[in-house]
Amino acid sequence: MGIPEKVINRLTMYHFILEDMREDEKYISSTKLANLLNIDNSQVRKDLKYIDNQGKCRVGYEVKSLKRKIEECLGFKKTKDVFIVGAGNLGSALAKYDSFKDYGLNVLAMFDKDSKKIGTMINGREVFDISKVGNLAQRLGVEMAILTVPKEYSQGVANYLAGAGIKYIWNFTPCILDVPSDVKVWNENLIGSFLQFTNNEKDEKAKDDDRNKSMYG
């Protein structure tokens, strides 16, 4: 049974919460998970059915068991090697995000065309000339790349990555890529997420205004 993308996203959020729980907290309820994420607790129960984890009535879900089930379901323990292509501010920030390792993502190296960046180290990862992507991908068996180059270079670099044997591109650029059918792209829409957040904020304010009118109008 395939898991919808939105459910996968929420499962990772549940895992974040479980990771932060104290050792003496043995159980967690769907209500607590729902309240922390501002969603309905029925949604939590529906999501957790995908990982075949049953809670206990009036007690909740066992923290260690639920955490392990999410890890198994989403493949956290299966390490996936990846390159970061683009050693600018965003690429460097992602290279410094050590928590990727906790979820099975291992950044092996970075690539750029800027001669000033080539040969430097960012959080223990060397920045190579982008022309070496194909050779290193073949030698190391890497099929995934995180793309963080400027928009005007994104399509050209994506074409190059596809030709170099990269099969999966996690795209952080504000550009919809046109790639061969055997290359899969996941678009990380940072601007869309920001606009969704601000629009939700407007909706909540409008609801508050309506409630105030009904109380005092």
Describe the 3D structure.
It contains eight helices and nine strands. It is an alpha/beta fold and 217 residues long. It folds into two domains: 5-74, Winged helix-like DNA-binding domain superfamily/Winged helix DNA-binding domain (Arc Repressor Mutant, subunit A), CATH 1.10.10.10; 80-191, Rossmann fold. The strands form two sheets. It has a seven-stranded mixed beta sheet with strand order 5-6-4-3-7-8-9, sandwiched between helices. The chain has a two-stranded antiparallel ribbon with strand order 1-2. The longest helix is centred in the C-terminal third of the chain and has 27 residues, at 190-216. It is elongated and about 60 Å long. The mean pLDDT is 88.
What distance separates the N and C termini?
51 Å
Shape: elongated
Percentage of residues assigned to helices: 40-55%
CATH homologous superfamily placement of the largest domain: NAD(P)-binding Rossmann-like Domain
SSE string = HEHHEHEHEEEHEHEEH
Strand segment count: 9
Strand content range: 15-25%
Give the biggest sheet.
Answer: 7 strands, mixed
Could you report the average pLDDT, rounded to the nearest whole number? Answer: 88
Quickly count the helices.
Answer: 8
Judged by helices, strands and strand pairing, the structural class is alpha/beta
